[in-house]
Amino acid sequence: MTDGAVVRVVATAGHVDHGKSTLVQALTGTDPDRWAEEKARGLTIDLGFASARLPSGATVAFVDVPGHTRFLKNMLAGVGAVQACVFVVAATEGWKPQSEEHLRILDLLGVEHGLVALTKVGLVDDDTAELAVLELAERVAGTFLADAEVVPVDAVHGTGLPALTAALDRLVRATPPAPDRGRPRLWVDRSFAPKGAGTVVTGTLGHGALAVDDEVVVLPSRRPARIRRLQSLHVDVDRIGPGTRVAVNLSGIDHGDVGRGDALVTQDGWHTTTTVDALLTTLPTLGHPVSRRGAHLLHLGSGELPVRLRVLGDDAIEPGATAPVRVHLPRPLPLVPGDRFVLRDAGRGETVGGGEVLDVDPVRPASHARPDRSIDRVVAERGWVEVEHLERLTGVHRAPDVGRWTVDPAELARTREELRGAVAAAGPHGLDLAPMDERRRAVLDTLDDVVRDAGRARVAAEDHAEPFADHPWLAAVEAEPFAPPPPDGVEPSDLQALTRAGLVVRTGSVWFAASAIETAAARVADLLATRPEGVTVAEVREALGTSRKYVIPLLTHFDETGRTRRRGDHRIAGPRLAVGR
């Protein structure tokens, strides 16, 4: 299987005993009920998996979920990452309580594609089947299944299976591929240890690709592991893209240290959080408002978590309404805005509602929070955000405004004006950059009217004249290049500025004009052009017409800067001396 193959993960859904598993077995040849207890009771208890190649060449990977209300937790673990569904309703019984709950759950999770299989039509007459179709149309009105194909089928007798296969093919090809954002995340729905294989976890891969030998981390435990082997639909692969059922053979971790609800991610690819702001939509059939009171369970990814809930703004959310909430998780999870969830009331044993994550790292107190999916809001609340961190917070990559940061426009304008004022106030000496942080240095680079030179920032002059170029002591050392006067009486700040500006060079206890350094280097190069074996201090002193007091510091400077190298009593050419040019 390659990344280009069309594969879609499709969940079954519907009331208990309406024939979901029987239908999957008829379509794929695989019994999705894995447990002996399931086979003995004729009842799906946990998730089952099977796949089939369709006439177009596309592949459908089924996640078969239990329909009994007692196993709703397992059902929710299986539908968190699916792309489409086959909604199953038996013609013999019609719409039932779990039919309604499963449909609402799929709607809350944002599933947008599906078809309806009207099963067991061989057990009813035509009029009953027709009435069942009419009831279906009423029940799914206003949901994502409103315009879905309805296919009558009887898996036991084979009636309608070719039509259902053709409808599945159309569904798979109409369902868009899962987006690849370069940050893989696998919500684990099974963990086991086959004999001789070590730890294997399975799930539906999202957000990015995995490859053999990738280093990964299991969250929330943060245990590291390495991918030893990958398998998708029973075929070994070296690499697998998002939107695919995958089994991952891990090394470096025991299967008991990873389980359902954990996430497999790459190193440093995700922001983990224990607090999120989200948008919650409550079910219109709910018989009471939703508030912070109650024992709430959050179903997200493949896990179920007890959470604390706070409604933002109002005290409660009425049935059928939508409002922002703050959710406190019991353990850190790798989340991103847009992640979907379902909320249930543990005490009442009912589905409350569901929605999507808006902010995975809220910084404002709940009383002032106004969450949404806006990236500008995330930046404005922080002022400065590194672009890599911003991508982890929002799932969206933005080009930096300054350096490696995205910056709130108001904060950037304020910082620019603050720096312009500080540079102007520093005058011709310039603003010392040493104590300045990296952010402000990055902003300085964006200011056209400021120049940086020798560790200081100054207002750019039109002629770019050096403010100390006419200093009287500089004129004196230039007049006596190889016997310069000491800086007696020169202000320490002026001496520091002249040195930083590169107008004078200190070596030992002597200050030379920069022009004198270059002239001396040229004369030493001329000497070495005729004497490549080296020159002595006396020969250099004679060439410059000065004394050892000045020649020794000069040659020491040349040794330190790579223009000469000392060999006994001689100096030979260093790598930075242009000899014979």
How would you describe what is shown here?
- This protein has 581 residues and is an alpha+beta fold.
- The chain contains 15 helices and 30 strands.
- The strands form eight sheets. Strands 2-3-1-4-5-6 form a six-stranded mixed β-sheet, sandwiched between helices. It has a six-stranded antiparallel beta barrel with strand order 7-8-14-11-10-15. A six-stranded antiparallel β-barrel has the order 16-19-18-17-20-21.
- A hairpin with a 2-residue loop joins strand 17 and strand 18 (303-311).
- Helix 14 (537-544) packs across helix 15.
- The longest helix has 18 residues, at 409-426.
- It is elongated and about 120 Å long.
- It starts with 6 loop residues before the first strand and ends in an 8-residue tail after the last strand.
Q: What key attributes describe this structure?
A:
581 residues; alpha+beta; six-stranded mixed beta sheet; six-stranded antiparallel barrel; 15 helices; 30 strands
Quick take:
It contains 15 helices and 30 strands.
Largest sheet features:
6 strands, mixed
Low-confidence runs: none
Radius of gyration: 37 Å
Strand content: 25-35%
Layout of SSEs?
Blueprint: E1 7-14, H1 20-28, H2 36-41, E2 48-53, E3 59-64, H3 72-79, E4 84-90, H4 97-108, E5 114-119, H5 126-140, E6 150-152, H6 161-174, E7 185-192, E8 199-206, E9 210-211, E10 215-219, E11 223-232, E12 235-237, E13 239-240, E14 244-251, E15 263-266, E16 272-282, E17 296-300, E18 303-311, E19 322-334, E20 340-345, E21 350-359, H7 375-382, E22 384-386, H8 387-394, E23 405-407, H9 409-426, E24 431-432, H10 438-444, E25 450-453, E26 456-459, H11 472-479, H12 492-500, E27 504-507, E28 510-513, H13 514-530, H14 537-544, H15 548-560, E29 564-567, E30 570-573
Parallel strand pairs: 1-3, 1-4, 4-5, 5-6
Antiparallel strand pairs: 2-3, 7-8, 7-15, 8-14, 9-13, 10-11, 10-15, 11-12, 11-14, 16-19, 16-21, 17-18, 17-20, 18-19, 20-21, 22-23, 24-26, 25-26, 27-28, 29-30
Helix pairs in contact: 14-15
